[in-house]
């Protein structure tokens, strides 16, 4: 009996009279979390340009992290059918990127696809009051397809475990897509009766990343990297994740790496945002955001950011695995207890054992520079190839499988789809600790965001603060205060208001800055046409030259950029 919230189009009683396109097959995409919904969106291009196929979504409730799924599906304008209507309606195909939930209730051949780089996480669960499995490492409250599991039972590999795949003695999925043959061996150990239903198809997500490799420069521009090295921080969820084990590491990387040489980007697992709240995540990361961190949205962006990255700092999550497979220098920064969560026979566990570890007690910049300098391309291909060794085949093989299950002849393979530009949240950096080195008329300088404690990362720094800085303590401590334009009387008033300020600087063009010193001297410094330095660096160059220079000031070097200057 239909409820008031049941769809009337494109399915439902009398739906034919309301349809515009007369499709012959209905596909149900079963989302459980934002993560699984995102992976389903990677699958949907298999049905591109096919007017015979209508795709609808439903949400299989019960995950501890199901908050946000509805909003996500509305944002992408998916047609969503309630779970009650979904289990009451026959479909020609159901696709799920999670083996959890009451999937046995669906009236459709079910295709299971992985929602990460293979199958790696161990299940750890106990029986709930309803007799099902309650969430442990899998993050689900109901834990999976009910399989008569008694209280206290735990173990198995998520996505391959018998208790997820079997209900009342019957295999629930009609087909299980695996990314590599090695997973067949582990499936045989977990649920041997499911092996005949397994099909090795490759990894659709990784293939899509590879297909977009030519857009690396575009994605770097979108992230604001410029000519800086891009450090992608990746954190999965849980206490053994990067954020769980090293809560201050993101802020430290953002403040301890030179601002003009490194751009830091964070890809946090959606379960973090939807488990704790986006507001809370931003509160925790406030110092890092103020220091220039780019925080990617939970729904998209990490794939493009991996292509844009020069180095990855991660944990035992799939993003780190994909980064190593792409050939990015990779450091592991988790707690070392990921063995509690990973199948020790999985390639992800092998990669975690092989990757060099970042030591949070040591100099972070030095470790980043070392891994980038010492990295050997292809160093981890043998390990990552055990999950991603069928490059470029996933779209064709999955499409054939899906259409076979629908009893429909597939058309030509669709072209690769573009990854969306990675657009993240970021704060504006208004205060810097600056170190300078003067040699033969050249001032080389490095700027570090002033957020957080400087520690030993900066040698003999001076503090440069923008006039729009809201932290009065920084303004009162500044050696240089900078204004983004010129205004009559501003420099004199600034020097009067802040007696600790040595220099007031006004930017009067893309390459020219006027300087007013406390001792009454006035300078104008102009950069040449080549090198294109940030004009807000020029006051620091003059500051360093006045403190340590002998002879004329001729050149300013900031990161990879160098420009001639004229001082009058």
What structural keywords apply?
about 575 residues; alpha/beta; nine-stranded mixed beta barrel; about 20% strand
Question: What count of helical segments does DSSP give?
Answer: 21
- Report the helical percentage: 25-40%
The Rg value, from CA coordinates, equals 28 Å
Largest sheet: 9 strands, mixed, barrel
Structure description:
There is one protein chain. This protein is an alpha/beta fold and 568 residues long. Helices cover 29% and strands 20% of the residues. The protein has a 9-stranded mixed barrel. A hairpin with a 5-residue loop joins strand 5 (126-127) and strand 6 (133-134). Helix 15 packs antiparallel against helix 17. The termini are far apart.
Write the layout of secondary structure elements.
Layout (H helix, E strand, L loop, with lengths): L24 E7 L2 H10 L9 E7 L9 H7 L7 H6 L4 E4 L13 E3 L13 E2 L5 E2 L27 H4 E2 L2 E2 L3 E4 L3 H9 L7 E3 L3 H8 L4 H7 L6 E7 L6 H4 L3 H8 L5 E7 L1 H7 L1 H7 L1 H5 L3 E2 L6 H7 L2 E4 L3 H8 L4 E3 L14 H8 L9 H11 L6 H8 L5 H13 L18 E2 L4 E9 L2 E8 L12 E5 L5 H6 L2 E4 L6 H8 L5 E5 L4 E6 L4 E6 L10 H11 L6 E4 L2 E7 L1
Parallel strand pairs: 1-2, 1-3, 3-4, 4-9, 9-10, 11-12, 11-14, 12-13, 14-15, 18-24, 19-20, 20-21
Antiparallel strand pairs: 5-6, 7-8, 13-16, 17-18, 17-19, 21-22, 22-23, 23-25, 24-25
Helix pairs in contact: 7-13, 10-11, 14-17, 15-17
């Amino acid at each position: 009996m239909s409820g008031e919230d049941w769809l009337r189009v494109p399915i439902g009683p009398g739906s034919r009279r309301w349809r515009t396109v007369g499709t012959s097959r209905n596909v149900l995409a079963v989302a459980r979390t934002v993560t699984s919904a995102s992976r389903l969106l990677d699958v949907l291009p298999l049905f591109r340009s096919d007017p015979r196929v209508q795709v609808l979504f439903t949400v299989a409730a019960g995950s501890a992290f199901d908050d946000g799924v509805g909003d996500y599906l509305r944002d992408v304008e998916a047609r969503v059918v309630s779970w009650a209507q979904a289990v009451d309606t026959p479909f020609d195909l159901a696709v799920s990127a999670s083996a959890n939930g009451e999937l046995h209730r669906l009236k459709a051949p079910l295709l299971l696809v992985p929602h990460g780089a293979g199958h790696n996480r161990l299940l750890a669960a106990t029986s709930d009051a309803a007799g099902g499995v309650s969430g442990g490492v899998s993050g689900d409250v109901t834990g999976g397809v009910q399989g008569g599991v008694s209280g206290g039972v735990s173990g198995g590999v998520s996505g391959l475990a018998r208790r997820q795949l079997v209900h009342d003695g019957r295999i629930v999925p009609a087909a299980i897509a695996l990314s590599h043959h090695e997973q067949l061996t582990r499936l045989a150990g977990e649920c041997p009766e499911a092996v005949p239903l397994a099909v090795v198809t490759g990894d659709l997500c990784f293939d899509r990343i590879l297909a977009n490799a030519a857009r690396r420069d575009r994605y770097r521009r979108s992230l604001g990297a410029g000519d800086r090295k891009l450090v992608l921080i990746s954190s999965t969820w849980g206490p053994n994740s990067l954020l769980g084990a090293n809560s201050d590491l993101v802020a430290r990387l953002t403040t301890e790496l030179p601002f003009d040489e490194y751009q830091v980007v964070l890809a946090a697992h959606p379960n973090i945002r939807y488990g704790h709240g986006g507001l809370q995540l931003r509160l925790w990361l406030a110092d890092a955001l103020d220091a220039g961190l780019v925080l990617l949205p939970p729904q998209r962006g990490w794939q493009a950011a991996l292509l844009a990255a020069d180095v990855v700092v991660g944990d035992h999550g799939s993003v780190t695995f994909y980064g190593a497979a792409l050939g990015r220098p990779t450091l592991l920064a988790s707690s070392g207890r990921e063995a509690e969560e990973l199948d020790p026979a999985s390639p992800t566990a092998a990669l975690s054992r092989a990757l060099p570890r970042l030591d949070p007690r040591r100099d972070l910049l030095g470790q980043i520079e070392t891994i980038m300098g010492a990295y050997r391309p292809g160093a981890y291909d043998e390990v990552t190839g055990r999950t991603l060794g069928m490059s470029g085949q996933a779209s064709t093989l999955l499409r054939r499988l899906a259409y076979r299950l629908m009893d429909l002849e597939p058309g030509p393979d669709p072209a690769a789809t573009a990854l969306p530009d990675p657009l993240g949240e970021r704060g504006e950096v208004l205060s810097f600790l600056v170190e300078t080195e003067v040699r033969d008329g050249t001032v080389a300088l490095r700027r570090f965001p002033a957020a957080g404690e400087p520690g030993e990362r900066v040698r003999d720094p001076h503090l440069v603060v923008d006039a729009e800085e809201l932290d009065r303590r920084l303004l009162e401590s500044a050696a240089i205060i900078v204004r983004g334009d010129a205004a009559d009387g501003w420099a004199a008033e600034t020097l009067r208001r802040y007696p600790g300020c040595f220099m007031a600087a006004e930017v009067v063009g893309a390459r020219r800055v006027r300087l007013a010193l406390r001792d009454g001297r006035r300078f104008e410094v102009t950069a040449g046409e080549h090198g294109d330095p940030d004009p807000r660096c020029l006051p620091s160059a003059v500051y360093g030259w006045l403190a340590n220079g002998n002879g004329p000031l001729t050149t300013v070097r900031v990161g990879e950029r160098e420009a001639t200057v004229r001082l009058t």
